[in-house]
Amino acid sequence: MPFVGLLEDLTHDEAATRPIPAAHNVWEIVLHPGTAQELIVDLVRGTSSPYELGGEWPPVGEPTEDAWAEAVEQFRLGEAEVRRVVSEGVTGGGSVAGASGAA
């Protein structure tokens, strides 16, 4: 099952719950890949900016039902965008930020 499929029946309250005090909750784990997704898209397009330490764990904000639905949708859209630009970059003869040769 894809990761996003595991989130479909999870409520915003469940996603925001922190059962282990020092660990990330599910909501934070869903937001976390967004920074990598953006970086990958930018790298493939050749528009990446210098990486700034600290932004890889965005804050959850107000844990509402709508905010949780938005977080899951943004994860889903980010994953689709990564797949699209990587596929186009590879099949379209593009390169990844200065990489050369066949992948």
The N- and C-terminal alpha carbons lie at a distance of 27 Å
- Determine Rg (CA atoms, Å): 16 Å
- Tally of distinct domains: 1
SSE order, as H and E? Answer: HHHH
What's the SSE blueprint?
Layout (H helix, E strand, L loop, with lengths): L11 H5 L9 H6 L1 H13 L19 H27 L12
Task: Report on the architecture of this protein.
With 103 residues, the chain is mostly helical. The chain contains four helices and no strands. It has helices at 12-16, 26-31, 33-45, 65-91.
Which features does this protein show?
single chain, 103 residues, mainly alpha, 4 helices
Summarize this structure briefly.
By secondary structure, the chain is mainly α. Helices cover 50% and strands 0% of the residues. The chain contains 4 helices and no strands.
